[in-house]
Specification:
The complex is a heterodimer.
Chain A (H helix, E strand, L loop, with lengths): L1 E12 L2 E12 L3 E5 L6 H9 L6 E6 L2 E2 L5 H7 L1 E4 L11 H11 L7 H11 L15 H14 L4 E5 L7 H16 L3 E5 L3 H7 L2 E6 L2 E6 L1 H5 L2 H8 L5
Parallel strand pairs in A: 3-8, 3-9, 6-7, 7-8
Antiparallel strand pairs in A: 1-2, 1-4, 4-5, 9-10
Helix pairs in contact in A: 3-4, 3-5, 4-5, 5-6
Chain B lengths: L9 H16 L6 H27 L7 H17 L6 H27 L4 H21 L9 E2 L10 H24 L2 H11 L1 H6 L4 H27 L1 E2 L1 H4 L2 H14 L5 H17 L7 H15 L3 H23 L1
Antiparallel strand pairs in B: 1-2
Helix pairs in contact in B: 2-6, 2-7, 2-9, 2-11, 2-12, 3-4, 3-5, 3-9, 4-9, 6-9, 7-9, 11-12, 11-14
GO cellular component, one term (chain B): plasma membrane
Protein name (chain B): Branched-chain amino acid ABC transporter permease
Keywords (chain B): Cell membrane, Membrane, Transmembrane, Transmembrane helix
Chain lengths: ~240, ~325
């Protein structure tokens, strides 16, 4: 079943076409990764799906509703959550309170907020840190807090923006485990990530963008052996 | 909202009850001069708490709350003039309060819609300008009589001196402000506002209706401030633009909050008590030094204890607990 349908989406910034005629679909309970070189338009695409940017043309359909150009908070209410690369916790609140805010104001509703919070904290491996002040967390823990907060809103679709950037190998592995657990708990994930190892490990499907256009779409194995992708993004090992 | 605040402890209830009993008993033992000081602490403490309903939660620091203070006073004054002499004073006061609240509500909504789009220092400056403009308008256009002012009738209650009567009115005002602050802090609105204060964009992303919450806090804060303006003017018995549209009122509310601790309920009141006692009793004979000392205190607080006295005490307590834990772990 398709959760998100993006149809010939285009975004023009003055003279620059950041996204040009991109069409893609995201299947329910999958992890779909979007990769591509810097400036390929990954963030622009994310910003349009979450409502921070209005597309120049094209259509975004989520869960059967047209959400093209809708305000961010309304898209959030429809069931799209976003985890940012630069995590912005509420620094003076504890880990638990941070997640509780998301649970209470999100789709979970106040009644189930406590249970939702406990579950989200557990899925993201934050249970031992629940009473720590968010401002005192390391970057790896902050990223997982960002994810916990996002899923506490009980989204249907989670947009994860480079959750592995700047993490070491051990932290990356823990994070990809968390991502898989989130998917298995019934949340569809759209991931933007530069860490190809991590992408290979978690993705059910990979979409490659270059200069605003989609150049490949398929399983990780197929996509990463595609010559166009190697030329545009991966490169070849030096001889 | 559940899960964010510990329930109010019996110790806190006990302490509050004790303070209240003391506050009620005070007018029967204190001298008129002491009582006038206490009046100011109650009124301006209450106003500082009202200021914190917006500034303390969201960090939207209004530098122009005198606008609402004056607006309320003028609304009540102008209405009083329209009422015939047969209307008793107490009824005049009540009608004046209601009218002031209604006018301020409308004005606050109208101002908030553009001004709350600004953040940080831009919001502060816009509010400062708003207060200055209202003051000038009231003086310039004769219908508002800002330059001449109004004389307000004297409110009398048998058995109470005027200074006692207004002491009690200010006490009720302070309690209403405290009550609203405590209820709000513990509500969904308060939690949402606190999140706005820490990171507005994130709050919006998590589904907090930021615009509506900010507007609500702004309006409640403004209306309470207007009530303070009406009560203050009745306690003086007269008012002009210069007695209510005072920039020092706007700034003092921030100063009191900073000295005591912004975003706390006791902080602004403690700050008001300290600063009022300091400037009027300790420096009572050195009037020229008020501003100098006020400035020095402000600079000292901002550099040494940016979270105010309450924040200072909390930090010290937290540090002591942490060292005890570490020592416990070491042994």
């Amino acid at each position: 079943m398709t959760v998100l349908t993006i149809e010939s989406l285009t975004k023009q910034f003055r003279g620059l076409r950041a996204i040009e005629d991109v069409t893609l679909t995201v299947e329910r309970d999958s992890i779909t990764s979007i990769v591509g070189p810097n400036g390929a338009g990954k963030s622009t695409l994310f910003n349009m799906v979450s409502g921070y940017l209005k597309p120049t043309s094209g259509r975004i359909e989520f869960d059967g509703h047209d959400i093209t150009g809708m305000a961010p908070y309304r898209i959030c209410r429809q069931g799209v959550a976003r985890a940012f690369q630069i995590s912005k916790p509420f620094p003076e609140l504890s880990v638990q309170e941070n997640v509780l805010v998301a649970a209470s104001f999100g789709r979970a509703g106040e009644r189930d907020a406590k249970a939702t919070t406990t579950r989200a904290i557990d899925i993201c491996h934050l249970t031992p840190l629940r009473d720590r002040r968010a401002g005192s967390l390391s970057i790896g823990n902050l990223r997982r807090l960002e994810l916990a907060r996002a899923i506490a809103a009980r989204p249907i679709l989670l947009l994860a923006d480079e959750p592995c950037a700047g993490l070491n190998d051990a932290e990356t592995r823990e994070l990809t485990n968390v991502l898989s657990k989130i998917r298995d708990s019934g949340v569809t994930i759209l991931l933007v990530e530069h860490d190809i190892k991590a992408v290979r490990r978690v993705s059910d499907r990979v979409v490659v963008l270059e200069a605003g256009r989609k150049i490949a779409d398929g399983s990780a194995t197929d996509v990463f052996s595609d010559q166009a992708v190697i030329d545009a993004y991966l490169g070849t090992a030096p001889a | 909202m559940r899960g964010f605040h510990k329930p109010i402890s019996s110790r806190q209830w006990g302490l509050s009850a004790l303070l209240l009993v003391g506050a009620v008993a005070l007018p029967f033992v204190a001298s008129p001069f002491e009582l006038r000081l206490a009046q100011q602490i109650l009124l301006f403490g209450g106003l500082a708490v009202a200021w914190n309903l917006l500034g303390g939660f969201t960090t939207y620091w209004s530098f122009g709350h005198a606008a609402f203070f004056g607006l309320g006073a003028f609304a009540a004054g102008l209405l009083g003039q329209q009422l015939g002499p047969e209307v008793p004073v107490a009824l005049r006061l009540v009608l004046g309060l209601l009218f002031a609240m209604a006018v301020t509500l409308a004005a606050a909504v109208a101002v908030a819609l553009p001004v709350l789009r600004l953040r940080g220092i831009y919001f502060a400056i816009a509010m400062l300008a708003f207060a200055q403009i209202l003051g000038e308008v009231s003086k310039t256009f004769d219908v508002f009589q800002g330059a001449i002012g109004f004389t307000l009738p004297i409110l009398k209650v048998p058995g109470l001196a005027k200074v006692q009567l207004f002491y009690f009115l200010f006490l009720v005002f302070l309690m209403v402000c405290i009550g609203l602050f405590v209820v709000m802090r513990r509500s969904r609105l308060g939690v949402g506002l606190t999140c706005i204060g820490q990171d507005e964009d994130t709050a919006a992303m998590l589904g907090v209706p930021t615009e509506r919450y900010k507007l609500t806090a702004f309006v409640i804060s403004a209306v309470l401030t207007a009530v303070g303006g009406v009560l203050y003017s009745y306690s003086l018995g007269f008012m002009t633009a210069d007695t209510v549209f005072r920039i020092d009122i706007s700034l003092n509310l921030i100063l009191y909050s900073m000295v005591g601790g912004i975003g706390t309920v006791a902080g602004p009141i403690i700050g008001a008590a300290i600063m009022i006692l300091l400037t009027q009793v300790v420096l009572g004979d050195l009037l020229d030094l008020h501003m100098l000392v006020t400035g020095a205190v402000l600079v000292a607080m901002v550099t040494l204890a940016p979270k105010g006295l309450i924040g200072l005490v909390r930090d010290m307590r937290r540090r002591r607990e942490e060292t005890t834990v570490e020592e416990g772990a070491a042994s």
